[in-house]
Every structure is written in C-alpha cells, then in structure tokens.
Amino acid sequence: MRDLAALREEVDRWKAYRQRLEDTAELLQLAVEEDDQALLEEVAAEVDGLEAEMKRLEFKMLLSGPHDRADAILAIHAGAGGTDAQDWAQMLLRMYLRWAEAKGYKTELLDKLDGEEAGIKRAMVRVSGPYAYGYLRAERGVHRLVRLSPFDAAHRRHTSFALVEVWPDIADEIEIEIDPNDLQIETFRAAGAGGQHVQKNETAVRITHIPTGIVVSCQNERSQTQNREMALRILRARLYELEERKKQAELAALKGDHVEAGWGNQIRSYVLHPYQMVKDHRTGYETGNAAAVLDGALDPLIEAYLRVIPERA
To answer: Nearest CA to 307 among 279, 289, 284?
Structure first.
C-alpha cells in the first residue's frame, strides 16, 4: 500500500503538470488574440515556473532504481589517518545527520564505536524517508579530508580518510507465501519410540517444497495434523532463511567491492587548508563553501552525481 500511494502521488504530480501546460497554452493563445501585454507577461512568468518544475520532475526520474524509494542504511568507517581519521568520521556523521534533518528524514543510530582519543571508529545510521537511498547512494566511497590537525602539537597539515557505505533497508520486503500447489505432502508411520498408537498410524508428515527442493519432515507430535502444522512452520522458517541469503547476496552486490579507505581511492576531497574547497572527483563538481557542505548542504553534490553518472548509481 505504501508503494501504491507513492506511485499514485507521482502520477498525480505529472497529471497536474500536464494540466498546467494546457492551461498556459490556452492563456497564451488568448493573450496573443487580444494583444494583451499584461497577460503575455503573466504567461512568461508561468513558463519560467513550468521550466523550473520540469527540471525538478526530470531529476526525480533519476531516482527510479529498484530501491531508490527505500530507506537507507548508512555506515561510516574511519580509515587511514589515526585520531584525525576518527575525528573525520565523526564530522561526516554530523554532516549526514544535518543533511537528513534538512530533508525532513528520520534518523536512528544503530551502532557507534567511539575512538580512544576523539571521534568515532565506526557508526551506522538508518535514514528513513522518501528516496533516502536514492539520494544517499551517491555518497558511497572514500572521503578525504585535508586540514591543519587539531591533534598535532606542531599544528601541521594532515590528510585523513573515511569510508562511507550505503545500502537500501529492504529487510521488510521479505515475505513468505507458500502456494499449496508447490507442496508435495506425504504421510508415513513414525519411527522409534512412541508407543503402539504411533507405530500403527501414519502420524508422521513429510513436505517437499517442489520449487526449491526443500524437504521437511516431522514425527514428534501425536497427531498427523500437529505434525503437518509443525512441518509447515519449519518450511516457512527455511524458506525465510533462503530469502535472507538471497537478500544478503543482493545487498553485497549493491554495496560493491570493498575499498580501502586510503590514498588513491577517494571519491571526494574536502580541503580546509591552505584554501577551502570540496571537489567530487567522479563528476568534477566543486564548491568553495566547504563549511556549508560539512553542515549538510549536500544536495548540489548529490544531484551532480546522479545527473552525470546515473548508470553507476
């Protein structure tokens, strides 16, 4: 129902845009026929608004991956750079929390390991909201910081690294529905101890799930009905486990190959000394307002990535 509501909202958005186009076209025709300069200026303003709205709608089309609508799990790991890297990981965590707050997303800290002296060694956050994964998938990779180290007595310039991982929160998508036509159910006499009743009646049940070949049997209960119910319960558990393994394999593919958080692997550099600049090496986008980026102003960087490299996202 949540997916259906989101799709309806998207369709309604396009229908409203089409209606605006038709209304503007009619207004333009009327303005031309009556040579109404004021009305022409009104139409021109509406056209500017339509162009801006089209850009927003076009950008939303970049968020059309199979999991882009999903919530996201964001993990940050301190890399090369010692205490500075752990402090950098803490700065990144704050940056993403501020970004999520500005987007109206809900965040939940799932795991955090503090550093010995400062910062964090790792952190994991669930980010909940529309298209959270669609946006945050642009952040996967190694992030590099260059600054004067506050942990160096000589106050020298240091370079630190942190690895950001992002994957969709799709655990709730696992649903187990068993088609009765996919089941081969056999009954047989229970073996072993259990008394005369167990030996003479076919109380044991064996269920084969034909599509997967999983076979489950139960003979511990007194009645065939009880054994059947228990066997189905076990089968559901095994099918759930199978789906979990499939999801884990899918998540591993989405996360991509493991990358060391060190020299030569960075996707983005944040330079605070001797000048201020944030540059994304994948897209070439850069800005001199590093303070704003570290305060959560990530949308321009994310949008540049999604526009330039949608096929890798």
So the answer is: 284
What is the distance between the alpha carbons of residues 186 and 194, in angstroms, rounded to a whole number? 20
Side by side, the strands of the sheet bearing 183-188 are 183-188, 204-209, 214-218
The two tokens of residue 187 are: 């009954």
pLDDT for 193 equals 46
The 10 Å CB-count burial string (b at 16+, else e) for 217-230 is bbbebeebeebbeb
Q: Which residues pair with 78 in a beta bridge?
A: 162
- Report how far residue 141's alpha carbon sits from residue 282's, in angstroms, rounded to the nearest whole number: 11
Q: Where are the domains of the chain?
A: 2-61, 72-173+259-312, 180-251
Report pLDDT digits (tens) over 162-220: 999 988 887 666 567 788 899 999 888 765 544 444 445 677 888 999 999 988 877 76
The pTM of this model reads 0.66
Tokens read off for 108:
């939940």
What CATH fold (topology level) applies to the domain 72-173+259-312? Alpha-Beta Plaits (3.30.70)
Pair 139, 164: CB distance under 8 Å: yes
Span 107-129, pLDDT tens digits? 988 888 889 889 999 888 889 99
What's the CA angle centered on 140, arms 136 and 146, to 5 degrees?
110
Class at the top of the CATH hierarchy for domain 180-251: alpha beta
Rg (CA), the chain: 29
- Residue recorded with tokens 């009327």: 30
Strands of the chain (E only): list them: 72-78, 106-114, 120-128, 141-148, 157-168, 183-188, 204-209, 214-218, 266-271, 277-280, 286-287
Q: Please state whether beta strands 286-287 and 183-188 pair in parallel, antiparallel, or not at all (unpaired).
A: unpaired
